[in-house]
Design brief:
The protein has about 130 residues and is α+β, with helices and mostly antiparallel strands. Helix content is about 30%, strand content about 35%.
Length: about 130
Amino acid sequence: MTRDKNLEIARLQQEIEAHIGIGQGGLVYNFETGANGKEKLFLITVNPRHNQSFLFHATEGSDRLDALRNMLDYVRTYKERDGSYTIQWSVRGENTLQTSYFRAKNVLEALDKLFYDRDPNSITVFSVNLNPIS
């Protein structure tokens, strides 16, 4: 029996979205094929409040399905294995202070997620805090 890959991709994406709690249109699945031939998945969150996007997490797999399965494995347990960070920032030239939350292994990974796919000079970071364990 041959399974329809597109149906499996849609199912995995729906399950990922359900675990994260972000509705339709709040996530972007960006796939890239690496030099090693593996498929890399960059899961991007889109925040309509301040109209910015950030990296949620990146995984790699032998193909798109494998990368999605690895992402699903991550989202099932990321709250237990990563710290919660609050970053206060502003777009250069604007006077509005924004607050964003990231799950990351350390402060550098949290900042990498904030600056993903953008000019590092386009944002001013005012504070980064590791949130208490709840």
